Amino acid sequence: MQEQTSTATHPKQKREPKPTTFIDAFVDFSFKRLFATEESKPILIGLLNHLFKGRKYITEIEYGKNEFPGEIAQEGGAVFDVYCTDVNGSKFIIEVQRGNQEYFKERALFYVSRAISEQAPKGDRKGWAYKLTEVYLLAFLEDFNLPDSPKSEYVQDICLANRHTGIIFYDKVGFIFIEMLNFVKGSDELYTELDKWLYALKHLTEFKQRPEYLSGPEFDQLFTLANYASLTPEERDMYNSSLKRKWDNKNVLDYAVKKSLEQGLEQGLEQGREQGREQGIHKKAIEIALEMLVNKYPIEEIIKLTKLSKEEIQSLQK
Question: Which PANTHER family match (predicted)?
Answer without folding.
Answer: PD-(D_E)XK NUCLEASE FAMILY TRANSPOSASE
